[in-house]
Amino acid sequence: MDNTPQADWMSYRLSSFQQDFARLAKEVVKIVVGQIQDSDSSMVKLMIPATLVKRDTLK
Description:
By secondary structure, this protein is an alpha+beta fold. The chain has one domain (5-53). Helices cover 29% and strands 14% of the residues. The two termini are 23 Å apart.
């Protein structure tokens, strides 16, 4: 999982990405249900924005 609380610990201070996992799950369910209902459906590409959380590992 990205942007865990441990990423902000002083000994690490890792840069990471904050992702909207609730939205990701919702969109995936919509896609899967749509493909089940229409077996001839084409491949779906989905981009869900993520936010870069800058910490000490970025220069």
